[in-house]
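Narrative of activities, Objective 1.

The group set out to show that a structural description can be obtained from nothing but a protein's sequence at a throughput compatible with the screening campaign. Below is one input-output pair from the validation batch, recorded exactly as produced.
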Amino acid sequence: MPSAAGLTGTDQHGGAVCRPVKNARTRILTLVLTLLGVQLSWLVAPAYACGCGAMVPDPAREIAVSDEQSVLRWDGRQEQIVMRLTVNGDARHAAWIMPVPHRAAVRLGDPALFDQLATATAPVHRTRYHFWPYNGDWPFDDHDSAADAPAPGADSAVGVVDRQRLGPFDVARLTATDPAALEDWLHTHGFSLPARLKTALRPYVDRHWEYVAVRLAPDTGTGTGTGGSTGPLHGALDPLHLTFASDRPVYPMRLSRLASLPQSLGLYVLAAHRMQTRSAIGGLQPTVLFAGRVHPHGGALGKLAARTPYLTALTQRFPEPSRISGDHELVRAAADTPVQQVDYEDRLLTVGGIPAWLLTVGGILLAAGTAFTVVVVRRSRRPVTPPPPVQPPPPVTPSAPLG
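Output recorded for this entry:
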């Protein structure tokens, strides 16, 4: 799957300032440039490992895998891996090594496969309406904003099972019982192997795995999508398609522990059911970007998905590659629960072009005003009940005279 790094800088412009301020700005600018230089040195450092195996450039050259896309297809008995690497650097020749548990057949892959996978797993777009205005909606809109917008060897410890030319690639299928012998074989054929890789290969040698060594043939160009026959390797290389027997799906990752920069893995898995990694093997927990059955009509994806229609798209980050503890083993998930990313477009709910909230608030205010008016009018028209009449005091009866 792709990774990117961004560098941003800001400057300040002011009027006349005194000399101490200028000196302070000079020191700050020097510090920023120093830090920028350090970061650039990290970005162009040689990268000897990628998710699919170990990248080996020619001596005194640099190469980095800027993007890796891999598809793993497993039908219960056989595994297929289709990998495509995008590389940058000044190396004109390079090779990489892919450990495999059994003997592999190698052929060129179909570049259209990755376009079809991208289409099949693309997020769906939906519109989501909101009632109350957000920032950017009337009356909070800001019209001034700019944001509208993967021959036999000399040493008997190394066996060359087969060697073939596939387009721009010179592909050798190797066996090895000694990492040092494998280093010698590569060195004999023009490529030096980093010393640390010899130790990393030991677990594969102990388990009797085999290796697919791939080299860019120097007389056939770079094999990149950018063209050019003798220039540095740059751009997307032609995909390679490996097929080998396997009783369990595994994606080799152990050699990526040699990388000096954080690594990213993007992996499509085609199987009968939804799949997941057994563990994180030293990286962040993998994220499922897509899970579901695909029904392609023909094409590269249609051929590959036959009898393995369930597609799981995984992505994972390895901030510290040295912590990678092994290869990815894939197991069936507890359920075939589908996962689909959704891109929402938020819109303000309107009625006849008028914001619904404005109609609602206006209606409430109008209703409240009308009710108040009615109450006032009714009270003004209500007849006034006159006060009861004043009753005159009863007459006083004169008393009889005494005596």
